[in-house]
Design brief:
This protein has helices at 4-12, 16-27, 30-46, 57-74, 92-99, 109-116, 120-128, 131-142, 147-154, 158-175, 177-182. The chain has 193 residues and is mainly α. The protein is globular and about 55 Å long. GO terms for molecular function: DNA binding; sigma factor activity.
Length: 193
């Protein structure tokens, strides 16, 4: 029988790229993304005995990575920074990279800001969700995956996904009610929104 390390590596190596892509979405910084992936692999290896053979390893590792991000990176209030932001200077590589893009591909500055810097209150509210609810909310509401896809990835029934998503939305609505009022967003009364 193969060692724990060999079995883990066999399952883990094919998901490295997917974990890095997700880490980049979460951190918006290559160095932080690499740190997050490394942290995910350390946590995954330590918890590998709890992984159930035959279930979706990629989904299991994705959950570990998201939880690591919300529990460690978001709590530490780490915010992404581009390498040149501290100096305000651009080098030849930046100019060359920028010349390869058309303005049609670019997001507005406002959208870039919103994508990169989720308000602290929102990050805190997401961190308060149980890991199961948070994972479903991120997969379905943020990443836009179908309920069936989320159910398949997490190895649960579609009704469980729908229930967890509804409960996550209800909890987030409650947690963010004051935040929404302060910023002038309309909030529904006691009934459904």
């Amino acid at each position: 029988m193969a060692s724990k390390r060999t079995r883990f590596e066999k399952l883990a190596m094919p998901v490295v790229d997917a974990l890095y892509r997700q880490a980049m979405k979460l951190t918006n910084n290559p160095d932080d993304a690499q740190d997050l992936v490394q942290d995910t692999f350390e946590r995954g290896f330590k918890a590998f005995d709890s992984f159930q053979e035959g279930t979706n390893f990629a989904a299991w590792m994705t959950t570990i990575e998201r939880n690591a991000y919300f529990n460690q990176y978001a709590k530490a209030k780490r915010r992404p920074q581009r390498a040149n932001d501290s100096t305000g200077e651009y080098d030849d590589w930046d100019i060359y990279s920028a010349s390869e893009h058309s303005s049609e591909e670019l997001k507005s500055a406002e959208q870039e800001y919103l994508d990169a810097y989720a308000p602290e209150e929102i990050m805190a509210a997401l961190a308060k969700l149980s890991p199961e609810r948070r994972q479903v909310f991120i997969d379905a509401a943020i990443d836009g995956k179908s309920y069936q896809q989320v159910a398949d990835e997490q190895g649960v029934k579609i009704g469980t996904v729908m229930s967890r998503l509804n409960r996550a939305r209800t909890q987030l609505k409650r947690e963010l009610a004051n935040y929404a009022k302060e910023r002038g967003y309309a909030t529904a009364g006691k009934g459904r929104a």
